[in-house]
C-alpha cells in the first residue's frame, strides 16, 4: 500500500498516540480523499457482512484437512504428535510435539521448549520456511523437545466444551485470557508430561502473553528461561502507519459496535476486505511494511505459501485490548469502563501487570530490531526499567518485525544466539 493512501503526517501520528479524537470521527475531515475512501470502503464491507455474520456461511474457513503434524511438519521428515489440553474456562487447545528428523519420539529428548506465536498466527508460523531456516525445525534437530502452542480460536485448536464458534461468548476474550488461561495451561501440560521446567520462546503477541504470565508465581515456577523475539509490553511509541490509522479511526470500537466478534480474514467478509485492500490499486508489500516496519530479509517470494496458513482468526476484543494499550500507554488488563471495571476488578481502572514481579532468577533473552514499527525501542526501554533482571539483548539495526520469524538470515543472525543462550543454562530438568 503506498504511503499516500495510509501514511499519516507526523502531526497525525502524534494525535493518534497522545490525543485521540472523540468517537467516532471528530477529525475525519483531516483525512485525505484517498484515506476517507478507504475508511468508507472498509466500514461498508463490514456493514454489509455484519447482518449475516452469525450465519455459518459468513464464518466459513479454509479448514485444514489434517492436523498441523500431518499437513506441515511430518512431510518435512520430522516425527510429530498431536496433543490436546483444556483451559479452566473450557477451551480445548491443540499442541504439537516435534523431535529431530533423525530421532524418534520415544527416545529421550533434551530440554522442552514451548513456542508461542503472534497475532493472527498459530503454531505453523515456526515451520513456514525450509528446515534449515525455520526455528521449530532447527530446535528439534538440535535435540530440544519442541512443543508448539496454539491459542484459542486458531485453526489448530479444537473449540470449546460447550460453546460454538458462532456464539458471541466464544470470542469474549483478549490476550489477557491467552496469558492467564491458554499459556498457563500449555505450560502446565508440558511441565506435567515432561516432568521438567521448560524454555519458552515467544514472538510479538507471544511476548505480551509470556511477560504477563511470568508475573504470576504459579506459572513462572514451571519455566526455566525465556527467549522473546520483538518483545512487547507497552505500545505507546509504535510507528506502524496502518495500526495508527486504524486506532485513529476507532476501527476496533466500530467493529464491536457492529456486533462483529470474530476477526477472521479467511471468512467471507475478511476475504472481501483483503481483496479490496490488495487489488491493483494497492501494493501489498508496502501494506505489510505499514504494519510491521521495513523488513530487511523477509522472503517475499514465499508469500503465497505463507498465505496458505496465515492469517488465523482472533477476536475483535483482542484487537480492542491492543488498541487500548496504544491509546492509554499501559500494560494492563482489559478496560471495560469504570463501572464494569469496578464490578470485575474491584477498582475503577484495570489492574496493571507488574513486571517487577517477574523473578530476577528467571533468565531472559530478548531480540529486537531498529526497523520494527511495533516493538519500539523506546517501549522496550520502558520494559527493561521495570524488570528486576537484566536480560541478554540482541539488537539488529536493519531488522523489522517479521524478520525475527521469517528472515532468510534469521538462523545466523538470531536463532544461533538463542541456542547459545539456552545451552549456556544447561538442562532444566526438575528434581
Tell me what you see in this structure:
The chain is of the alpha/beta class and 431 residues long. The protein has two domains: 1-60 and 240-292, no CATH class; 68-235 and 344-425, Rossmann fold, CATH 3.40.50. The protein has helices at 3-6, 10-18, 33-50, 68-73, 135-141, 175-194, 205-213, 217-220, 241-248, 251-257, 268-277, 284-292, 303-309, 316-328, 338-345, 377-386, 403-406, 410-425, and strands spanning 80-86, 92-98, 112-116, 145-149, 198-203, 223-229, 262-263, 314-315, 364-369, 392-396. A hairpin with a 5-residue loop joins strand 1 and strand 2 (92-98). The longest helix has 20 residues, at 175-194. It is globular, with a radius of gyration of 21 Å. The active site is at 204 (nucleophile), 372 (charge relay system), 401 (charge relay system). Residues 70-128 form the Partial AB-hydrolase lipase domain. GO terms for molecular function: hydrolase activity. InterPro entries: AB_hydrolase_fold, AB_hydrolase_lipase, Lipase_euk.
Outline of the structure:
The protein is α/β, with parallel strands linked by helices. The protein folds into two domains: 1-60 and 240-292, no CATH class; 68-235 and 344-425, Rossmann fold (3-Layer(aba) Sandwich). The chain has 18 helices and ten strands.
- CATH homolog superfamily of the largest domain: Alpha/Beta hydrolase fold, catalytic domain
Number of domains: 2
Global morphology: globular
Helix tally equals: 18
CATH architecture of the largest domain: 3-Layer(aba) Sandwich
Terminal CA distance reads: 54 Å
Chain-wise SSE layout:
Blueprint: H1 3-6, H2 10-18, H3 33-50, H4 68-73, E1 80-86, E2 92-98, E3 112-116, H5 135-141, E4 145-149, H6 175-194, E5 198-203, H7 205-213, H8 217-220, E6 223-229, H9 241-248, H10 251-257, E7 262-263, H11 268-277, H12 284-292, H13 303-309, E8 314-315, H14 316-328, H15 338-345, E9 364-369, H16 377-386, E10 392-396, H17 403-406, H18 410-425
Helix pairs in contact: 2-9, 3-11, 6-7, 10-14
Pfam families: Abhydro_lipase
InterPro entries: AB_hydrolase_fold, AB_hydrolase_lipase, Lipase_euk
GO molecular function, one term: hydrolase activity
Amino acid at each position: 500500500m503506498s504511503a499516500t493512501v495510509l501514511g499519516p503526517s507526523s502531526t497525525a501520528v502524534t494525535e493518534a498516540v497522545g490525543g485521540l479524537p472523540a468517537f467516532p470521527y471528530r477529525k475525519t475531515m483531516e483525512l485525505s480523499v484517498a484515506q476517507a475512501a478507504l475508511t468508507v470502503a472498509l466500514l461498508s464491507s463490514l456493514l454489509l457482512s455484519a447482518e449475516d455474520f452469525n450465519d455459518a456461511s459468513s464464518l466459513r474457513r479454509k479448514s485444514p484437512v489434517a492436523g498441523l503434524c500431518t499437513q506441515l511438519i511430518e512431510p518435512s521428515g520430522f516425527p510429530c504428535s498431536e496433543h490436546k489440553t483444556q483451559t479452566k474456562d473450557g477451551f480445548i487447545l491443540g499442541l504439537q510435539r516435534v523431535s529431530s528428523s533423525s530421532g524418534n519420539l520415544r527416545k529421550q529428548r533434551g530440554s522442552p521448549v514451548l513456542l508461542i506465536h503472534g497475532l493472527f498466527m498459530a503454531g505453523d508460523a515456526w515451520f513456514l520456511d525450509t528446515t534449515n531456516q525455520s526455528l521449530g525445525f532447527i530446535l528439534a534437530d538440535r535435540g530440544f523437545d519442541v512443543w508448539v502452542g496454539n491459542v484459542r480460536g486458531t485453526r489448530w485448536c479444537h473449540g470449546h466444551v460447550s460453546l460454538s464458534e458462532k456464539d458471541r461468548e466464544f470470542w469474549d476474550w483478549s490476550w489477557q485470557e491467552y496469558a492467564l488461561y491458554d499459556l498457563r495451561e500449555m505450560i502446565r501440560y508440558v511441565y506435567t508430561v515432561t516432568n521438567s521446567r521448560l524454555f519458552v520462546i515467544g514472538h510479538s503477541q507471544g511476548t505480551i502473553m509470556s511477560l504477563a504470565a511470568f508475573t504470576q508465581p504459579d506459572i513462572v515456577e514451571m519455566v526455566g528461561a525465556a527467549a522473546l523475539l520483538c518483545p512487547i509490553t507497552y505500545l505507546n511509541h509504535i510507528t506502524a502507519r496502518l495500526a495508527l490509522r486504524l486506532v485513529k479511526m476507532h476501527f476496533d470500537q466500530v467493529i464491536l459496535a457492529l456486533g462483529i466478534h470474530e476477526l477472521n480474514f479467511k471468512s467471507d467478509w475478511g476475504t472481501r476486505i483483503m481483496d479490496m485492500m490488495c487489488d491493483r490499486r494497492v501494493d501489498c508489500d508496502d501494506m505489510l511494511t505499514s504494519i510491521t516496519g521495513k523488513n530487511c530479509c523477509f522472503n517475499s517470494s514465499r508469500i503465497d505459501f505463507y498465505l496458505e496458513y496465515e492469517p488465523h482468526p482472533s477476536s475483535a476484543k483482542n484487537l480492542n485490548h491492543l488498541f487500548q494499550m496504544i491509546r492509554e500507554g499501559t500494560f494492563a488488563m482489559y478496560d471495560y469502563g469504570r463501572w464494569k471495571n469496578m464490578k470485575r476488578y474491584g477498582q475503577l481502572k484495570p489492574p496493571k501487570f507488574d513486571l517487577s514481579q517477574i523473578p530476577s532468577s528467571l533468565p531472559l533473552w530478548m531480540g529486537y530490531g531498529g526497523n520494527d514499527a511495533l516493538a519500539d525501542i523506546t517501549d522496550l526501554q520502558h520494559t527493561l526499567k521495570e524488570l528486576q533482571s537484566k536480560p541478554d539483548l540482541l539488537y539488529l539495526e536493519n531488522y523489522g518485525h517479521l524478520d525475527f520469524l521469517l528472515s532468510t538470515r534469521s538462523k545466523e543472525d538470531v536463532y544461533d544466539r538463542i541456542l547459545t543462550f539456552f545451552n549456556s543454562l544447561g538442562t532444566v530438568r526438575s528434581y
